[in-house]
């Protein structure tokens, strides 16, 4: 509508002006989703898709009127480029929460390149990917032609460092810890709050992914993918009520994520987990209040993530039981081979290994549940997927309170 209005403005100035005015006012509906810190609620690959419309709009405004009407400086919008960069780990895999894809594009991100052109920040310009041969690039995005304009406008003005610990609030808050540039350990952690009822949302509050030594040890089960195929079965993919079909899918409900489950029940779909504490430094940490996620199942629960060393991650859950609490299940999703050992487990993948220790509950043995093939025929298949569990009966908890500590560390 904006492009059409610009085209016909000389012939229909009043109609064009009215349409453009409404469009500028309406941009707020899209841009508020990035606030306050730049976290795109639907994840990084949907950021590339959704944000592409905004950057094309801004480019048209600038071309025709010499201004983007404040789009770049709208609270959270420019920061979203930092979120996009942090969403890809050293393995090249995306932190694929919501319905995001897991693999980043082999070609340069043209949406991110617009932010590079506007800021001059080298970090946002994927030069090596843009320099691949046409044969390697294959079919290009429908926006590749206009993107050539802003790619040609890029002038490097330095490289603004991406923080090695970063937290962003919003409808689907996230936190990242990395090893920084040139980290020999290739450390990467992404964790999140949120609730199931956000757009493309999962019941994954408190879940996380973890990489070390170039291996993604803790995984997200992935995007739903075949929307049309699932819809044609009559399955209610898009309704998000508490008892809706959506949560029967492994990658949508909480049983397919590295979080907690109570009484083998679903998370509360509207119960938002929020990041209530975050600190940087040598040992960055973040605390997520998950109490609303377990309303009627637990009295209170918070999850604390700590990068307690250059090759380790501590997960600490402080839990107060409710009268309804029967079972607490601690969950971790992986594609690695699992060997149960005294005090935890040993994960092995690609010639590397990772230890899982649970010092808080030494009397409990980890269980491994194979999810390959997945339990439901409509589930996305992920080779070698399995869920590692610690199941704690409520009757074993003294005084109604417990702390579950699990530590992941490289060999």
How would you describe this protein?
The protein is α+β, with helices and mostly antiparallel strands and 411 residues long. The chain folds into two domains: 2-152, Chondroitin AC/alginate lyase (Glycosyltransferase, Alpha/alpha barrel); 165-410, Distorted Sandwich (Beta-galactosidase, Chain A, domain 5), CATH 2.70.98.70. 21% of the residues lie in helices and 26% in strands. It has nine helices and 17 strands. The chain has an eight-stranded antiparallel sheet, with no helix packed on it. Strands 1-2-3-4-5 form a five-stranded antiparallel sheet, with no helix packed on it. The N and C termini lie far apart (57 Å).
Specify the CATH architecture of the largest domain: Distorted Sandwich
Number of strands: 17
What does the main sheet amount to? 8 strands, antiparallel
Strand portion: 25-35%
Averaged pLDDT: 95
* Biggest sheet: strand arrangement: 7-8-9-10-17-14-13-12
The top-level CATH class of the largest domain is: Mainly Beta
Low-confidence stretches: none
Helix content: 10-25%
Helical region count? 9
Computed CA radius of gyration, to the nearest angstrom: 23 Å
Number of individual domains: 2
CATH topology assignment of the largest domain:
Beta-galactosidase, Chain A, domain 5
What sort of overall outline do the alpha carbons produce when their principal axes are compared? globular
Order of helices and strands: HHHHHHHHEEEEEHEEEEEEEEEEEE
N- to C-terminal distance: 57 Å
Helix vs. strand class: alpha+beta
């Amino acid at each position: 509508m904006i492009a059409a209005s610009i085209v016909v403005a000389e012939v229909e100035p009043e109609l064009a002006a009215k349409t453009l005015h409404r469009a500028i006012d309406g941009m707020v509906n899209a841009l508020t989703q990035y606030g306050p810190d730049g976290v795109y609620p639907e994840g990084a690959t949907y950021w590339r898709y959704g944000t592409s419309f905004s950057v094309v709009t801004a480019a048209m405004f600038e071309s025709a009127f010499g201004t983007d009407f404040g789009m770049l400086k709208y609270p959270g919008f420019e920061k979203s480029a930092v979120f996009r960069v942090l969403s890809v780990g050293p393995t090249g895999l995306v932190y694929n929460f919501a319905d995001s894809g897991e693999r980043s594009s082999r070609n340069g991100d043209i949406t991110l390149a617009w932010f590079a052109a506007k800021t001059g920040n080298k970090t946002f310009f994927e030069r090596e990917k843009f320099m691949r041969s046409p044969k390697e690039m294959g079919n290009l995005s429908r926006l590749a032609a206009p993107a050539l304009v802003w790619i040609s406008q890029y002038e490097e003005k330095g490289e603004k460092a991406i923080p090695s610990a970063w937290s962003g609030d919003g409808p689907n808050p996230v936190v990242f810890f990395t090893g920084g540039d040139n980290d020999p350990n290739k450390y990467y952690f992404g964790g999140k709050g949120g609730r199931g009822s956000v757009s493309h949302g999962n019941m994954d509050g408190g879940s996380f992914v973890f990489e070390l030594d170039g291996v993604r040890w803790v995984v997200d089960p992935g995007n739903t993918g075949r929307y049309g195929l699932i819809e044609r079965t009559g399955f209610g993919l898009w309704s998000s009520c508490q008892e809706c079909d959506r949560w029967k899918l492994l990658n949508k409900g909480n049983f397919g994520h590295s979080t907690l489950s109570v009484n083998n029940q679903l998370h509360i779909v509207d119960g938002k987990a929020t990041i209530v504490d975050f600190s940087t430094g040598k040992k960055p940490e973040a605390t997520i209040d998950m109490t609303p996620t377990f309303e009627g199942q637990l009295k209170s629960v918070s999850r604390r993530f700590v990068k307690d060393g250059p090759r380790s991650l501590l997960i600490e859950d402080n839990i107060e039981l409710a009268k309804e609490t029967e079972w607490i299940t601690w969950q971790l999703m992986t594609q690695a081979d699992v060997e149960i050992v005294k005090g935890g487990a040993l994960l092995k993948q690609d010639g590397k290994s990772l230890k899982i220790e649970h010092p808080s509950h030494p009397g409990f043995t980890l269980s491994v549940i194979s999810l390959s093939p997945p339990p439901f025929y409509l589930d996305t298949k992920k080779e070698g997927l399995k869920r590692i569990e610690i199941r704690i009966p409520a009757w074993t908890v003294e005084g109604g309170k417990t702390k579950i500590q699990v530590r992941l560390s490289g060999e």
